[in-house]
UniProtKB/TrEMBL annotation:
It catalyses: Acts on substrates that are at least partially unfolded. The cleavage site P1 residue is normally between a pair of hydrophobic residues, such as Val-|-Val. Residues 292-355, 395-491 form the PDZ domain. It comes from Alcaligenes ammonioxydans. Residues 100-119 are annotated as: Disordered. Its main location: periplasm. It is found in: Periplasm. This is Probable periplasmic serine endoprotease DegP-like.
Amino acid sequence: MEKSSKKMRIPVLSALTAAVILAAGAPMAYAQAQAVTTSEQVQSTTLGLPDFTGIVAKTEDGVVNIRTTEAVQVRSPAMGPGSDPYDMFRWFFGPDFMPPGMTPQRPHGGNNAPQAQERTVPRGVGSGFIISADGYILTNNHVVADSNGIFVTLSNGKEYPAKIIGTDERTDVALIKIEAKDLKPMVIGDSKQLKKGQWVLAIGSPFGLESTVTAGIVSAINRETGDYLPFIQTDVAVNPGNSGGPLINLNGEVVGVNSQIISRSGGFMGISLAIPIDEAMNVVEQLKTDGKVTRGRIGVQITPVADDVATALGLKDSKGALVSSVEEGGPAAKAGIQSGDVILKFNGRSIDQMTDLPRIVGSTKPGQSSTLEIWRKGKLQTVKINVEEMPSGNPVAAGKDQKDAPAASSTDAFGLKVTAVPEADLKRLGVESAVQVVDVGPPANQAGLQPGDLILRVNDKDVGTPEQYAKMVASLDKSKAAALLVLRAGQSQWILITPSK
């Protein structure tokens, strides 16, 4: 999407970009046309390379160009020199020069204060594709966001005004509609069938050049960028104006929505990202039905399972999502989920990496009873949980008041002095038992422990009183790192420390 042909509109990601994207709903039941051709049928007889001409001929009529407008404030001539872009014209033609389409604004009530005026100007261009014969079009949210006019041009040159049916900023998906009939929808494919190395095409309007075709291969699937959306990575040339256009496989099916590029220069550098069509269509169904997206939540905050933490907890690998905090009164708290639990499956679906969990939970209908498989204290457990609707609240932080706490213990093998936690704090945090750190020395300070931290668990054993904690630390193998479950500012994390000998 472009404000001009010189500026990038497609979002440019950095390696540290982080965001949480959740998809919801069920796929739309769109009529599926017959596949255009097969991978074998598009092989060139001369070079052994794909011939895309047949695919392009069958699909490009389903791709549209989208231009948008926006309203901007333009100051009146009375505002003085340098106040608006028409000052130069007034310098040549006199102070009474008025741009075409604008009328002088008279002061109200005799007030000579200058009046601001509003004009509609071009905002940018993007792409989209037809998903139903009656005029529904899928594109990116950033293509149509903040616009006051949307205009769709078909491949035959006809232009139609469009209205927004619904948008979802988190997945960058928008559903718009034009009043037209007998359109040619594109075939919706299955992005789950994509594999690395497969040929794919992009059709769109880079820099406003309508119906431009580029080709490349799938470079990676389920590419995480911190946005909780499993992007398709390709080396298909995508530039400003391609946003919202289709990514097409060799069967002529849409498998993705071109959305972003990764670039250090602001231009295409061989890495483009597309939203999987399965995720996009899940969102489209809800936008068409409700005009918005409803997502599920269970009320936990999570972190990845590090390899060393997985080893300390007795897990076979580092898959899953580690619960760092549980929202007080939320679905997870009601189900008995605890900080330090590792969620391995949700409704039978494996959580291979942390970002799988919010995506799967988000796509679960609020009110639905679900099943969690968790790893706790060296054992697998199954927990029933009722999914609620987003958004979630924030956990309560630990209290700092120590005036009623017993005296601190002596320094242990971790270099820590601990004390008991007031019962009121334990209850407020939803913690059954813990000890609180009051002084930190080596090796604990080198591992990141801080005064005020609550220690909930040592390896697979819950921490009770300071005396019980001291016995647990004294019995540890001094040649191995121990895993401490630490609660800090409402967030829990596993910290590895090797006891001093």
